[in-house]
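Tokens in:
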């Protein structure tokens, strides 16, 4: 039996009505010893109940929602995450990323992680290809990573992943033998990484499951504009999860998961320079993608997060204790 905290006198939980069910549910949850968990469930229950009251949730709709969430769980596997997809198409992932990884004006914008990042990507040397042959139109990618003062950052772990030319990630193939079109490079002394990949293509998010059906009911398409994902990790810096989007894509302004930011849209050019192409055993007609990323220090990110939390809570008219940028229920 878990230990039950009894700091809060419990009212008799009977004869509850639609007028007092919310406050009583909050009270019984307040037995938790965690101030943050108490706050989370106070607000979750309050908003959830108010949602039901406001829309006059019917029993049919309530069971439809339960069956929908059940279907989301049933289609999940080790390599398919329908709930992240659901969070993405509801705009929640974009919101959570923005709150947790705020950027100063000169920091590279973050964007959604998406459901296709894996933890089995192989490490590559500078100049190597993260894609096996025949995966798409070859592209040379050259990036530089600096801090917000413009100092090059060496030793940054850069995790990259993209689809093949058919718009599928390796994890979407039943016969996946191992990671492909994904890899990890480490920035050199000048903060640079150079690698070969393929020209990104637009693709539909998996829409053969419950989230796809939901999008259809909502009159939305499931497409994401062509992009390449990046995740940067270095001690002392806030983890940067972002993507580069290719300018001119048909879905540039209607991304199904709301991930596009103007500052992350890049022009894809031909390599043109014969010497450069030859150096990487490519053709001048192959593609060249270049971008400079700016990481934000942990300290900068933490200060911004706290400042943004205080401003947002003030705007919402919420008076509550805040610890490390997170509101808590401080009542003991
Ligand atoms: Fe993606």
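Residues out:
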């Amino acid at each position: 039996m878990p230990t039950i905290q009894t700091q809060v006198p419990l009212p008799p939980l009977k004869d509850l009505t639609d007028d007092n069910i919310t406050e009583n549910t909050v009270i019984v949850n307040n037995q938790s010893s965690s101030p943050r968990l108490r706050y989370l469930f106070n607000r979750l229950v309050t908003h959830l109940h108010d949602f039901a009251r406001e829309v006059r949730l019917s029993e049919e709709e309530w069971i439809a929602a339960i069956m929908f969430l059940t279907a989301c769980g049933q289609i999940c596997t080790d390599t398919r995450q329908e709930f992240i997809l659901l969070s993405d198409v509801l705009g929640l992932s974009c919101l959570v990323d923005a709150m947790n990884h705020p950027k100063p004006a000169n920091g590279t914008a973050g964007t959604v992680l998406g459901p296709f990042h894996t933890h089995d990507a192989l490490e590559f040397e500078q100049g190597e290809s993260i894609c096996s042959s025949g995966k798409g139109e070859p592209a040379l990618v050259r990036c530089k990573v600096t801090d917000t003062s413009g100092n090059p950052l060496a030793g940054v772990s850069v995790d990259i992943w993209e689809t093949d030319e058919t718009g599928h990630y390796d994890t979407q193939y039943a016969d996946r033998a191992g990671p492909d079109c994904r890899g990890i490079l480490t920035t050199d002394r000048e903060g640079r990484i150079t690698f070969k990949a393929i020209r990104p293509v637009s693709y539909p998010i998996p829409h053969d499951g419950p989230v796809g059906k939901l999008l259809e009911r909502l009159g939305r398409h499931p497409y994401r504009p062509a992009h390449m994902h990046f995740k940067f990790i270095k001690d002392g810096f806030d983890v940067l999860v972002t993507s580069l989007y290719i300018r001119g894509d048909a879905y540039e302004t209607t991304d199904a998961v709301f991930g596009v930011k103007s500052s992350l849209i890049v022009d894809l050019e031909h390599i043109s320079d014969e010497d450069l192409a030859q150096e990487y055993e490519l053709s001048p007609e192959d593609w060249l993608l270049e971008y400079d990323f700016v990481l934000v220090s942990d300290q900068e990110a933490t200060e911004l997060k706290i400042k943004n939390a205080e401003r947002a809570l003030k705007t919402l008219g919420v008076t509550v204790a805040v610890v490390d940028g997170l509101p808590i229920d401080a009542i003991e």
